[in-house]
Design a protein that fits this description.
Elements (H helix, E strand, L loop, with lengths): L4 E3 L6 H10 L9 H7 L4 E7 L2 E8 L1 E4 L2 E5 L10 E2 L5 H14 L2 E6 L5 H5 L6 E10 L4 H6 L3 H12 L3 E5 L3 H10 L10 H17 L2 E7 L5 E10 L2 E9 L1 H5 L2 H13 L5 E3 L6 H8 L4 E11 L3 H16 L1
């Protein structure tokens, strides 16, 4: 029986790792080594192996602050978790969790993938909190998918089509970053660090090299870009990884047009559109109008730091909230 062990970054066999993720039922782009190298440099892992074959893996996005190692979900990476060649057993998941909590005394939030929900459901730990994203099964005719849109979405789609917007593919991520920076960044709690945009640039370049990225913009009749969306195709999922629009794009329902176009082109294929929906009512409501279903997953949050450090952490959080 293989035993789970913690591996440092330089101890990970990346070819064996990617082969395990590829063969797993939980198969997700977020867990591939080249993706993790961009969003969480120096990541560590819990690994089970038989000989040179990795049979079960769990990436650990490690950060360091005040000399303390802790886990924090990276940007552009809604889910991680445990990826297993065979069906993941609850006791196996429990052993992985125990090893993580043994080595890391704090996590600000670690998200397990939707494919881990069933085995984690039987583990009664208050540190595991249920959340959800939204999945739309595209393996249906477009007419059937369109019928799943709610009345407002159908109305706004028809309105968007009357705006005579052009959809155009692109290889240039900068206009999308510009749209986000100018129209959305100021609404993000705590602001957006410049490093986040650099990470997105690196990630986009890597995804283009792997042939899994699709970047689309809406253009007005005079050629102005008003909305954009980046999608990643991997493992039977199309991930709506990043998007932005200016006031004109919002008014003309540019993102509605972009999503509907993607749904049309990928209808009747064995793929699932993952909206990467946050649990923010206004955003989730927009995505729900396309007819997806909630897909539950679990996040792990705990603080087992010594009492003085716990109190320091709490005081800092309260100060940030007041500011």
């Amino acid at each position: 029986m293989p035993v789970a062990q913690l591996l440092q970054h330089n101890e990970i066999d990346k070819a064996a790792w990617d082969a395990c993720v590829e063969a797993s039922d939980q198969r997700q782009v977020y867990a591939l080594t080249w993706y993790l190298d961009v969003v969480s440099p120096g990541w560590q892992a819990v690994v089970e192996q038989e000989g040179v074959v990795y049979t079960c893996v769990m990436p650990l996005p490690v950060r360091r602050k005040y000399g303390i190692l802790y886990l924090q979900q990276p940007l552009f990476c809604q889910q991680l978790g445990i990826y297993a060649r065979q069906e993941l057993r609850p006791e196996q998941a429990k052993a992985f969790l125990a090893l993580v909590q043994q080595h890391f005394k704090y996590t600000s939030g670690y998200a397990f993938c939707t494919g881990n929900s069933a085995p984690l459901q039987s583990i009664k730990q208050e540190e595991l909190q249920p959340v959800y994203t939204l999945y739309l099964d595209l393996n249906k005719p477009y007419e059937q998918l369109w019928k799943g849109y709610n009345r407002d979405r159908k109305y706004n789609l028809n309105k968007a089509r009357r705006e005579k917007l052009r959809l155009t593919p692109s290889k240039d991520i900068e206009p999308l970053i510009g749209l986000f920076r100018q129209n959305i960044a100021h609404k993000v709690y705590g602001g957006v660090d410049e490093a986040a945009y650099d990470t997105l640039r690196q990630l986009y370049t890597a995804c283009v090299e792997k042939g899994i990225a699709e970047l689309l913009y809406t253009l007005t009749e005079d050629g102005s870009i008003t909305a954009g969306a980046l999608f990643l195709y991997y493992g039977g999922y199309i991930v709506y990884i990043f998007n932005a629009a200016d006031s004109s794009g919002r008014k003309s329902n540019g993102r509605t047009l972009l999503l509907d176009d993607l749904i049309q082109r990928n209808a009747n294929t064995p793929q699932t559109l993952d909206f990467e929906s946050p649990m923010i009512e206004s955003i989730a409501g927009f995505y729900e109008s396309f007819g997806p279903v909630p897909a539950p997953f679990y996040t792990l949050k705990y603080n087992h730091l010594p009492l003085p450090l716990r109190l320091l952490k709490q005081a800092r959080q309260q100060l940030l909230l007041r500011l």
